[in-house]
Amino acid sequence: MSAANGTNGRSGGVQSIERAFALLETMADEGGMMGVSQLAAASGLPLPTIHRLVRTLVELGYLHQEPSRQYALGPKLIRLGESSARMLSSRALPHLTRLVDELGESANMARLDGDGIVYVAQAPSRHSMRMFTEVGRRVLPHCTAVGKAMLAGMPPERVRELLQRTGMPRYTDHTITDPAEFARQLEIAAATGYAMDDGEQELGVRCVAVALPEAPARLAISISGPAGRMTEDLVERAVPLLTEVGRALAADLR
Known about the structure:
With 254 residues, this protein is an alpha+beta fold. Helices cover 47% and strands 18% of the residues.
């Protein structure tokens, strides 16, 4: 049963509120725009219920209708997202600082936002030469370790749909632009529990990332630095620590 179709056994819940938020989450997962029939298929709810919920969300400003008659996430969600991002950053910072203290390189947290990746928290390296992936920066998932780590936990068909919407633009000679090769890398990431970006977004930069398990959103943490410092030995040390910190941070966010 879909999360939108019932209260999932929670007592005291208000079903209409649960359904409305489930629809918003479904739309966010599917790129931010869907038609009524798509929402009905994804949620398992009858069309009259979908129409009623959508109409209310439009009146409140959380959805708006496009000329195509599809519905898109509305601008009123931006304020909620900004407040949530600030909360994520403050909760994540102590965990990211631990990574910097133990590994020496910059640590980041990113989340999947529609079809893109946005960095929401960072603890910078104390090296004079460090990476400057600033909070708020948006990138595409196919060329980043954090993106791969998050997409490795998604159904393959949803990954294919996302890549069809975004394309796979080439940023460096190392950027993966072949969907089949990208799918193979996601399989490796799912099997090993971590993902790598080796100069795929920016030449000379390596990054290793893990997804946060059972987090309230699709989130990943990473460390990144110049390829000369991000050695195989460092990556080998980083993966178990990233995994441990990721579990602790996910529990903190829950």
